[in-house]
What does this fold into?
Amino acid sequence: MLEASNNTELPAIPGKRYFTIGEVSDLCAVKPHVLRYWEQEFPQLKPLKRRGNRRYYQRHDVIIIRQIRSLLYEHGFTIGGARLKLSGTEAKDDSIQSQQIIKQLRCELEEVLDLLKR
It folds into this structure.
């Protein structure tokens, strides 16, 4: 298991579109077999699979992996607890995003109404 202090020293995520499992392993300081296991345990983690079942991770996958790593290694969560925490975070993010979209639509509709009144 990695020490908690290592998480603050993770390298910056490069501006690439896709990452191999080896690159993600280096970026997140987690071994490839652990990444494959986490794919089974966390439904949020779904890398693309191409020829020969090779995994290609995107930037958001790397961010999720770093969150999982932090929950497990720094905060002492179990796999089940980390899964619940991440799904709760997703629900909050979706709710906030929905509220922002509704607010924006409302403003646009009010502008259209003002134009129609003229």
